[in-house]
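Dear Dr. H.,

I hope your travels went smoothly. While you were away I took the liberty of generating a structure for the chain from your last submission, since the lab meeting agenda had it listed for discussion. I wanted you to have the full record in hand beforehand rather than looking at slides cold. The sequence, exactly as received, is reproduced here:
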Amino acid sequence: MGRTGCDYRCLLIPAALAFFYIQMRLFVTQSEYEGRLAAAIESESHCTSQSRLLIDQISTQQGTIVSLRDQNKRQSEECTQLKALLEDLERKGLKKLVDKVPVAAVVIMACNRADYLERTIESVLKYQSSVASKYPLFVSQDGTDPNVRSKAMSYDQLMYIQHLDSKPVHTERPGELIAYYKIARHYKWAMDQLFYKHNFSRVIILEDDMEIAPDFFDYFEAAAALLDKDKSIMAVSSWNDNGQKQFVHDPYELYRSDFFPGLGWMLTKSIWDELSPKWPKAYWDDWMRLKENHKGRHFLRPEVCRTYNFGEHGSSLGQFFQQYLQPIKLNNVKVDWKSRDLSYLMRDKYTKHFADIVRKAKPIQGTDAVLKAYNIEGDVRIQYKDQPDFERIARQFGIFEEWKDGIPRTSFKGVVVFRYQTTRRIFLVGPDSMKQLGTKDARNI
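The corresponding predicted structure, in token form, is as follows:
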């Protein structure tokens, strides 16, 4: 019996230890749970706080957005009002400049040469003031040069327009100057403005480094009548590439040409309707000299230039300027173009008129053509076999050697004419020029 009681006591000890262990584990587990629960409650409180902060920030941002929208709306309304005001002022200004149907708008293309622009404007205004209603004057600036803008806007006698183009330029060939692309964009924009926004029927384009002759406007008024009558005339130029002092004489003489001269030229709205949709990305003047754009049409040009290009600086001309531009003779004779009969320039008369002059010239041959021409009284003609032969002869006389798309500069039917030393004319005649001119003297050259 005593042994049995001892056994029970021995069993109670492990049971008590086990119970104690279980209680300790429960306590530890409960403590851990309480800790986790507290952490969870704290985390929830933090999340709630962050959510409220985020909601507050979103509310603030929404308020800012609403404020910005209101500000943008106000600015948009202000811009609309300013645009309307500018257009109104522009209409009033244009009405002031034009009180009847003009002959042509005159636009000076400018960029960043304020000093050159001033010289050009002063030259134009010298002769434009008396005929301002016939020739409303514009300055079109490409870019934001402040000096050019302020200079242009300082003149009440002209309208200022500005071409702002932020689109990037992607050249087609490595190493190309983006300037050629920007110039082409500017020309298209300016002519679109003048022909389509202001609805002019003709536009004369000048550059910001040109001076004009006393009869510049009378010349273009007479030429405008020819443009209207003869659709085979694509444009009229005031420039002769071989217009250097030693190669010109007669301020009354005008020619048709297959080569686009540029440098002070006039075109009509109907021609621009054709050119504008396909205007090139760059090198617009070379593009104008492609036969595919001429479609058999010609350009009018004077013997003696009605514009003078003084732009030696701010360009890449260099030696070209010294040789070809600086010696140009600017006409100083006030020709009464209204009294001149220019019907010989019409398509149905001009080829015969020009052919008769060429046919009457004395033919000479040989490598010493310059010497022979100098010793002959009266006009002479010299035939060239091909482009290299033409370049050789042109080099001897000192005239332009360059061709574009198979056409020598200034030529008509392959014939290049210029004065030499005196009033005599030299005709450089292509291998089939006489045939193109329809003269029976083709075999006697």
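Two observations you may find useful: Residues 237 and 265 are 4 Å apart (CA to CA). DSSP finds 13 helices and 16 strands in the chain.

With kind regards,
E. W.
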